């Protein structure tokens, strides 16, 4: 397939609420959106890099520069036998996984559309619906936390994840577990603690959590392995896992018993699938994490989650939870805790160009 044209957009979409984690908060989703065109078909990719280098070293500005100067020139006017060929071509560009993932996802959607099959099937997916969990930001008070959990339990979400940080952890979890003793509950620290907090974190063992996600610094695999010895709650790694090499090391060290896979964090679908397969071999369950994606990125996550190895509910909640209107139709919405997998060819949903026009702040075209 010859990639004839690429269109890179800067998009801004207001969130319905402020989403707070241990490393910051946001109320406006800013992101890059890529459209690749070939032979009348279009494939879309969404970059999950943020404005600041806080979750990841990558930013919207850095990703945009790498895409323009180094990655798009690799594929424009080149005949690609498969989407996987891009990974080989882009290998000399170190890191910049979120920039690479945007192109990887767009290429896979483009090839799936040309083949006339849903992206999920193109990726080897086997499910027509996936279990949906929800990630809840840090609320100001315990009372607000419990009320927020109740709202989402009532909506049918099959796993509740609470963001935590020092000073906003045990009190929230205690209250939520008391109010919802049967709910599948997890917590996510986004690396806010150190190994010196092990005794404190071990108090979470009393609440029957499914796992604690990324409690320590993303480079501290050895400390995660030590923490795992001091807690009965399984440790799930997120920011620490950027490649199949890192997940292999984490498993061998005993640093985790669950893995969160984000296609943007690991550089594309090829690496995400390799990580899933390695975890399946090791008996480590995986699930798909989210980055407040709009409709294109959400569709990618749904398709990936339809693969057999994704056995725990992912952070793939309804688009209407985040946005007044999304850039795709039909909306990706959960039904009693289940997200349907789009069955149309390619991305499976259509980009709403009327909405896209209203939320686009800049456009660059490459031929």
Q: How many helical elements?
A: 13
Structural class: alpha/beta
CATH arch. level architecture of the largest domain: Alpha-Beta Barrel
The helix fraction, in percent, is 25-40%
Which helices and strands appear, and what pairs or packs with what?
Elements lengths: L4 E17 L2 E15 L2 E7 L12 H16 L8 H7 L6 H19 L3 H4 L6 E3 L2 E3 L5 H13 L5 E4 L6 H10 L5 E4 L9 H5 L9 E2 L7 H10 L4 E3 L6 H10 L4 E4 L1 H4 L2 H14 L3 E3 L6 H11 L22 E2 L8 E3 L9 E2 L1 H7 E7 L1
Parallel strand pairs: 5-6, 6-7, 7-8, 8-9, 9-10, 10-11
Antiparallel strand pairs: 1-2, 1-15, 2-3, 4-13, 12-14
Account of the protein in words:
The protein is of the alpha/beta class and 367 residues long. It folds into two domains: 5-116 and 350-366, Enolase-like, domain 1; 122-340, Enolase-like C-terminal domain (TIM Barrel). 35% of the residues lie in helices and 22% in strands. The protein has 13 helices and 15 strands. It has helices at 60-75, 84-90, 97-115, 119-122, 142-154, 170-179, 198-202, 221-230, 244-253, 263-266, 269-282, 295-305, 353-359, and strands at 5-21, 24-38, 41-47, 129-131, 134-136, 160-163, 185-188, 212-213, 235-237, 258-261, 286-288, 328-329, 338-340, 350-351, 360-366. A seven-stranded parallel beta sheet has the order 5-6-7-8-9-10-11. The protein has a four-stranded antiparallel beta sheet with strand order 3-2-1-15, sandwiched between helices. The model has no long low-confidence stretch (mean pLDDT 95).
